Protein 1
Amino acid sequence: MPRGLLRGVIAAAVLVVAGCGGGGGDSMGATGQATSTAATPRTPSSAVAPSTSASVEATPATPSSACPQHYALVTPPSVTREGLRPLTRELCYDTFAVLHSGVSRTPLYAAEHLTRANLALASMLERIDSFHAETALPAEERAELNDYARSGYDRGHMAPNADMPTPTAQAQSFSLANMVPQVHANNAGIWSGMEQVARRLATGDGEVYVVSGPAFLGTEIKQVGRVLVPTHLWKVIYRPYTQQAGAYVIRNDDSAAYQVVSITALAQSVGIDVLPSLPAVVRETALELPQPTSGATRVTQWP
């Protein structure tokens, strides 16, 4: 795509994303209708390059996937809000998949199939930080390390390093394509607690599917470097063993407030139908997820 046209697409899409919140600044907006595509990232020498798809101005709402094994019922999430569709690419890594946005220069979601066996392997690995730009993405669509430098935000994993069963998968998880700008207290506190809940459920049940992502709600979206800062974060957990699913939703701030909502309610709020192939009764009834950290406060709506 010519650079001038690309800049126009990004500028227009940023306006749409920034305005997708509907009512007030923190209120969850209504859904629209949406699209996406896939790519092949190059990672550090310790990691095997994942597969990627070509980016287009707008992609289908429910694209075909090059790595369906990472998704519940081998079906990727459906992007229902049209403003989120431009410049999206699916990135297929060893143990997770990302739908990356060249507009926000973040993932729109990261999907994992967490298993007891993989978590046992992951628990034996020492963390080795290897943050890196995703060179499989075009330079104009990807985040760079200097976008985050001195920003005051963490590079927050969507698919967490602690879930990764091999050194290669661990290195892949440090791609900036798997990161969003995240308030440190949030990343190290309630978000970490939510990750631990998913691991406990996977260990107990044998498997769960987890999809995590940012939300850009309201009309005032901050930016660090060229990367958009999410206003909220969410994490969906689906338990095949009990046929139940639910979602945590939190603000990207230093509070410890959280909501638990159904998959249907989440789709209406953030414009992504995370589990489109599940029966309606599963999607419309929220799994009763536990308090993620001891100091966390559950709320029914944001004050």
Protein 2
Amino acid sequence: MVEPGAIAAAVEARRNMANKRAQVQDALLRDPEAARYAFDRHATWRIRRIG
């Protein structure tokens, strides 16, 4: 059984995720150098965290 509001919450979460994805894509297209820098920082953080 699904709790009241669970479907609406899932739809809202999906909408928010799509919006965030669009914002990230826009940022990547606007400034590729900053995107590479952010990616490199994230990759380094993940390697340190996993390793």
